[in-house]
Amino acid sequence: MLRMTPRHSSHAQSAPWRAVSIIALTGLGLALAGCQTAAPISAISIDESQGSEQNIASLTAVIRSNPGNPESYNVRGAAYGRAGEFRKALADFDKALQLNPRFYQAYANRALIHRNTGDITAAAADYNKALQINRNYDVAYIGRGNLYRQAGRLDEAMRDYERAIALDTTDPRAYHNRGLILQLRGRHREAIEAFSTSISLSSESPEPYNGRGISYAALNDDENAFADFNHAIQLDQSVAESWSNQALIYERRGETEKAIRSYARASQLDPDYQPARDGLSRLRKS
């Protein structure tokens, strides 16, 4: 199953679904930047091992030996998706669905490719089809929820995430993305709980640490916020949001030189990242 990676990258800024929320911190005259996993990012994480020529050649050999097996096309389509060869991935998912029109996993996989290429209408249709076939498919609820969130339809997105959670999903995206919506609504304690659950399911991504840190900071718990931002940096030093969030805590502590260095690092990673630019401008003026 293809999965949307939960990782934001400064290199993915051109992606149409990338979203950044700015959460005002009451009475402090500062703002904290939050990284939102609106698919961020590249909706599909490129995996050189799964998308290697050798792996795809092996999968092609399997298809040649049994061309009527839809699962083989689904697996190779996933490999093509991981390799960034989206046209070939779509062709394989189309073939899998031709062979088995009720192959709901292939619909969800094809939806992710459509989303990655910007065809949101086709992506929504495929998620809906997957759910018509299997109303208990958590992956499709999460994927469709992400489309709703991308469109600003937060109530519908929340319902889909909560449906996935009610199905006992172990996919951390359901909790992470639910946390983002709770955060936008100012329900920070609930957001912290959601991000913590996401972390418990997958602790290798910086996004839920950034998200949880933002809510900690909104509650004036700078110690826990700082710990989360630092951990996000340890996990991936290429994420501008993490450095900018760390800088804000330094700024709130009055550690101006450290704040400037962290804002500068964020700006170096992503020259267009506005919170870092604003932070540098604010500190240099003062």
From TrEMBL:
UniProt-listed Pfam families: TPR_1, TPR_11, TPR_8
Keywords, in A-Z order: Repeat, TPR repeat
SMART domains (alphabetical): TPR
Keyword Repeat tagged: yes
Name this polypeptide is given: Tetratricopeptide repeat protein
Cross-referenced InterPro entries: TPR_rpt, Ycf3/AcsC/BcsC/TPR_MFPF
Organismal lineage: Bacteria, Pseudomonadati, Pseudomonadota, Alphaproteobacteria, Hyphomicrobiales
Segments annotated as TPR repeats: 70-103, 104-137, 138-171, 172-205, 206-239, 240-273
Keyword Repeat: yes
Highest rank taxon of the organism: Bacteria
PANTHER family for the chain: CELLULOSE SYNTHASE OPERON PROTEIN C (PTHR44943), TPR REPEAT-CONTAINING PROTEIN MJ0263 (PTHR44943:SF8)
Region of interest: Disordered: 266-286
